[in-house]
Amino acid sequence: MTMPDEGLSPVVRVIAAMLFPFILIFSLYVILHGHLTPGGGFQGGAIGASAVVMLIVAYGARWVESKAGEESVSVLESLGGLMFVVTGLLGFLLAATFLSNFLVGEVLFGEIPTFGSNPGILNTGGTLPLLNIAVGLKVIGGLASVVLIMALGSRRDAA
Amino acid sequence: MDWLLTHAPALLIALPLLGAFLTPLIDRISGKARSAFVLVVLAATQLLMMALAWDVFTQGAHIYTMGAADPTATVPAQAAVPVRIVLQVDGMGAFMGLISVTVSLAAAVYSLAFMHRESGQGRFYTLLLLMVVGMLGMEFTGDLFNLFVFLEVLSIASAALIAFRFYHGDAVEGAIKYIVISSLGALMVLLAVALLYGQYNLLNMGALASVLEYTYLDKVALGLLIAAFAMKCGAVPMHMWTPDAYTVAPASITAMLVAASQASLYALFRICFSLYGFTLDLTTVGIIIIALGLLSMFIGVTMALPQKDIKRLMSYHAISQTGYMLLGVGVGLYLLAHADFDTYGIRAMEGGIFHIINHALYKGLLFLTAGAIFYKVGTRNLDEMGGLAHSMKYTTVFFIIGALAIAGIPPLNGFASKLLIYESAYRVSPILSIVAMLVSILTLASFVKVFHSAFMGPRLEGMGDGREVPRSMLVGMGLLTAGIILFGLFPDWVVSNLVHPAAQALADQAAYIAALGGGV
Fold this sequence. Notes:
- The complex is a heterodimer of chains A (about 160) and B (about 525).
- Chain A has about 160 residues and is mainly alpha-helical.
- Chain A contains five helices and no strands.
- Chain B contains 19 helices and two strands.
C-alpha cells in the first residue's frame, strides 16, 4: 500500500477519525463546565482546535480545507466574538450595566444553589456559561484557522 | 440621553468591538456594505465620544463598573476593596479618547480609496476597529490588569496591520520587529502588575494608589512599567522599532499607530501621576522622563535629517515630537510637589498634553500625504520624485499645512503647544528650552527638504497619471487639516477647555483615588 501524498498512513487516519468526536466532546465538557471546574472557554476551545489539528496532521491540510474552508471556520470565530459582546450589551438592556448577570434566577443557568458543598450543579452561573461558550467558539475558530492557514502555506509543494 | 451618557464608557469599547466582529460577516455579503458599516460604527463612536467628552469636561469624571447594579458602585456590597472591572473617564482619558477616535475616523475614510486595490479588506477593517478598541480600552480602564489586556489587543491588531501588505518583504520585517518589542513590553507590564498584585492584593489603580508604599519591589515595578511604555511610545533609546514599523505600514495605519503610541504615552503618564504620584521620588523620576524627552527630541530629529525615504523621515520626526510631550509632562512631574507647580509646572504639563493632540493631527496628516504620494508615484524615495505640486494641488496644500504645524510656525497649532513648553521649561533650566528650539529649527529644515524634493521642480515623466488622489483620501486628510487650523486659530479656548482639565486630572491624584473607590 502506498503512502498518501499528504497526511499519514491509514492506521493513523482511522484512529484519528475515531478519536475526533471524543476530543470534541471533551472540549464541550470543559467549555460547559467552565464555571464549575478548572478550564473554561479558552481551554476548551484550545482542546477543540487540537482535534482539528489532529485531522490536519492525519489527513493533510488540503483535505481539511475541502471539508471546512478557512472562510467558514472564520465565521465561527466572528460568531463567538459577537455572542460575547451581545451578552455584554444585553446586560444593560435587561439589567443595570454592561456584562450584568441578567440570568440569575431565570430558567436558563439561573439556579441559585444553597450554601455549602454540592456535586456541581450545571444549571448555575447566569451569563458565565454563555460567555464561556462564546469564548470557546472564538478560540476553536481562531486557532483552527490559524493552524490550517499555516499548514496550507507550508506544504512541501508550496515552496 | 442621560442613559446613553451613563453607559458611554462601556459602549465606546463595546461598539467598535461589535463592529469588528460583524465586519467579516458583512464583508461576505458585499464590500460596499462593509465599508459603509465600518464608517457608520466609527462615526457613531466619534459622536458618542464627543458627547462623553463634553460631559466630562463640564460635569466631571465618569465611573463605570462592569456588571454592577449601579455603575458608580466600584466596591461591591460584600467586599471591602474594589474588586470589579472599572472604567474611569476623567479629563485626561476623554482627551486621549477624542484623539484616538478622530484619527481612526480620518484613517478609515482615507483607507476607502487607499486600500481599494488590496484583497482581504474585511480583515483590514476588522483589525482597524480592534485597534480602536485597544486604544480606548487603555485610555479608559481603571484596572491595572485590563491595561495589560487592552495593550495586547492593541499590539496584536497593530502588528497584523503593519504586515498587511505582506507581499512587500520589508512589511513582514517591520511587523516582526514590532511584535517582538510589543510582546517584550507586554511581558514587562505583566511582571510589574504581578509584583504589585503580590504585595497589595489589588488591581484597581485607585485603590492601589492609596496603599502604595514605594517599597523596593514597587520601584522595580515602576522601572518595568516606565521602560515598557517608553518602549511602546518609541522614546529613544528604545525607538528602533518605530521607523521600521511606521515606514512599512499602510499610510492610514501609520497615522493610527501614532495615536496608538500616544495611548502608551498616556499609560506612562497615568502610571507616574495617578498610580505612584506623590510617593515617587519626583526629582529623580522627573529628571529621567525629561532626559528621555531630550534624547528622543534630539536623536530623533538628527536621524531624520539624512533620510531619503519620506515615511522613514517622518517616523524619526514622530520620535522627536514624542520627546516634546515627555519633556513637557516630565517638567510637570519634576515640579509636582514644588511650590511653583501651580505657576509654571502645570503650564509645562499643558504644553506637553496639548502637544499630544497637535502631534496626532499634524503627524497623522503628514503620514496621509506621504501615503497619497506613494499611491500616485509608487515609491517612497525622495530622490525619485519631484514636481508633484503640478498635479496634486490639494495634497500639496495639506502637506504645507502639516509641515508648518510640525515646525511650530505661528498661526498653526504646533506653535501654541511648543511655546507653552519653551516658556515653562526655561524656568527649570534654559538648556531644555534651547534644545527644544534647536530641534524645532532642524524639523523645519528637514521638511523644507521634503517639500522641495517631492513637490517643487518641473513636472516629471512617470509621476503618476497627473491627477489628484481619489476624493475619500482628500476627505480623510481634510478632516485632520480642519483640526489643525481650528486648534491653531483658537489655542486659548482649547487650552482652557480641553487641555487644562486633562492636565488637572493627571495632577490631582486624590480625586483619582476617590473616584475609583480607593482609600476605603
